[in-house]
Structures
1.
Amino acid sequence: MIKAGIIGATGYAGEELVRLLLAHKETEIVWYGSKSYIDQRFCDVYRNMFKLVPQRCKDDDLKALSKEADVIFTATPQGYLSSVLKEEILSSCKVIDLSADYRIKDVAVYEEWYKIEHKSPQFIKEAVYGLCELNRKQVKTARLIANPGCYTTCSILSIYPLLKEGLIEKDSIIIDAKSGVSGAGRGAKVNNLYCEVNENIKAYGVLTHRHTPEIEEQLSYAAGEPLRLIFTPHLTPMNRGILVTAYASLKAKDGRLPSEEDIRKAYQKYYAEEYFIRILDPGVCPETRWVLGSNFFDVNAKVDTRTGRVVMMGALDNLVKGAAGQAVQNMNLLFGLKETEGLTMIPMFP
């Protein structure tokens, strides 16, 4: 059995990790870490876990946990792991970090966008960006996984094949993304109160959202050169889900613009064998309700011959494929398990 510990177990992503790992036949949770609920029963924090998790929450002693666990998941705010991670810990166990601390390779860019000092930049180079469908080989041999976030996963997977195949102009990309409220975490914030969110939709972080450089960096690898894009997130009155609608100008090849068939072939080339990526039938748009509670990512695209542009669309559950599910997928690769182990749950509806 893989012994797993979770730091930040009582946040939304942490609780989702608990839910998934309890159903994982190869894993035992040995540590429910939560600074806010030390010595309280986990099932008293999340009553859906009554009679399922009788254990009490522990502190965030990463050093002690590394002696007990084979893998540590850190579902913590930005800056936490970078302030406590040591070589001693990485030498004892694998670490899968759900924050952004090791996602961006340029520490100056991280510090500029996140407005905090990075305390352990020496580990950034070796950290593997844990988008399994794109970096599977590197994930398998890593010690430290930078687990991608929900907006970034949905945006990158929606656009990657078309950039990789040179079908779109790299500097023409505009991403319009919408998220459920759980993406903001469980902490009490006025802007996330029911009356502030219900019956409302709003853009936020316009031109300043900190996931922008992460998306740019990963898509630059696909393009083979640096790129710049516009990313605008929106908050919507739903619990879960990410919907991305991205736009780009088509790039002419051999004197003609790519057709919808060319676009579809690109998605098939990269994703046809990917269990968790579902390329929808022509004309079908992704919807958040059809991926709810699952590790699936639904994608499709539509070519506008009138304007010479393409619309790329993707949907996922921000707490599963956008966080905890992807983390478990990474764990499966790290320990040589079947990649789908513990993650084949069918999307919930209604």
Note: The longest helix spans residues 150-164.
2.
Amino acid sequence: MHYSAAMNGPTSPPTPLQQPPALLLAAGRGERMRPLTDHTPKPLLAVRGQPLLQWHLQALQAAGVYRAVINTAWLGEQISARFSDAFAPQGAPDKREQLLISYSHEGRDFGGALETAGGIARALPLLGDVFWLAAGDVFAPDFRFEAAAAQAFAASGMLAHLWLVPNPAHHPRGDFGLSPEGLALNLPPEHPGPRHTYSTIALLRAELFAPPWCDIPPGNPRGIAAPLAPLLRRAMDNGRVSAALYTGRWTDVGTPERLAELNATAPLP
């Protein structure tokens, strides 16, 4: 892994409260997308004429996020070769508009992906106390990584803030409830209340990846693989996870059929 600092503005780098860095999850094998992912990592599959991961990079850069970390495993060298160490709008003349990119190469370091919590724990030394999180295999062209949301979260006592979406047809039961006060709810299976699907877009605090929520050592030096959901559920049970319902366009690009459907629809306005 390597770290890069960046400038965002005419004279000085942004403070963490303006826009924290982002972690983009791009390490998965994409088994359900085979054979498309046999030779191409899923985040590089083309959606509306450009790599799926690029939609997030564009939105982050437009929102003033100055640094992103991408975790990789399966065919990860293709991702780092495609995006290198910076991303900027095509033809942008000013390097201060660039989103600088670092990588956490789980495949190179451990031979495979570390799942979501394991991968986040590994990348934490590159991220700081508060950071954006987004999965590299979701298409959410309307989502805005707003600085005001990051500032409000940083000032709160929450460990995570999740964006939930209406349940898609392939996930009708959803994941988490949402209280009127804006708390994410870990509802038991028998609970009749409505659930929404976790969009895989969130703001997280590094504290979530330390005891009592998580037992992975700092920086995950042994490469422990662990999922994120158990940590979120523990924090929800203690009232430490907020959430909001997001109703913009959103697709979990998990199958060749969903990818083909996206690419068959009209171009974005």
Note: The CA atoms of residues 72 and 105 lie 5 Å apart.
3.
Amino acid sequence: MKKIMLLITLAFIVSSCSPYGNLTKMEFDELKYPFEVHKATLDDGRIIAFSDEGKSDHAIIFIHGLGSYSPGWYKSINLLKDKFRCIAVDLPGYGKSSKEIHSGRMEFYADVIVQLMNKLKLQNATIAGHSMGGQIAIVMSLKYPNRVKNLVLVDPAGFESFTAGQKQWFRDVMTVEGVKLTNTQSIRANLVSNFYDMPDDAEFMVTDRIAMRGAKDFENYCYTVVKSVNGMVDEPVIDFLQNITQPTLILFGENDNLIPNPYLNPGKTEDIAKIGAQKIPNSKLVMLPNCGHFLQFEKPEVFCNSLIEFMR
């Protein structure tokens, strides 16, 4: 009994000393974004939040990754908005977009991006996707080739192959309750694992994720994360990469801790990157040393310079 009480006391002390102990719970719409937020209502009534910076005729649409949101692109937008029209999207269920339940399929997300383009009267655009957003961008380039001018894949999902058993592992590991009950320490650890050396100005991603646990739509967000994982697993693109026709820029951090999957396919990120690049006919691969999975935030200048050179 004394041992149990000691453990409880220690847990209370650790919790009390946590730098996140005094964070105010926030609704998703209360999150502070580094740019003006616009909203569009799609045909099915979903509301999509997005930024729209820059005046160029050449638009880049930025698609975030699993569990993330559009502010993950803000450094890139600040560096690129003088040259391009930069549109960063909150996917359905994420950020300030509405939280209706949906399939989480990559094709569903691709359809949403095209619907948004229709609302914005954009005939085509360069599509830039990070992680899961990269897999969405690939699906979009295959389904809507005339709407995708160029493809920019940043540490993209979709270059790995998984067996039926490995796919089931993802489904078993990712549960709504598990996402919902992720504790503060794990939230921060998960974020840190996205970087080779997490910059101080990425801390807002941790505090936002902790604060949103009190939002009324938080459970739907958790459901969206789980369905998105299933969507990636159930809609692989590895066997269709050779059908991509758009000029494609592929960027990977050499120290990506998430690709390849460290539990299922331990190995070098560069090996996976080369597999994808060799399959995509008109592609250029850039590997960034001393850089993790969140490449566009950790090395924004290098990312943007590579993108600008590619666009020329």
Note: The chain has one domain: 35-311.
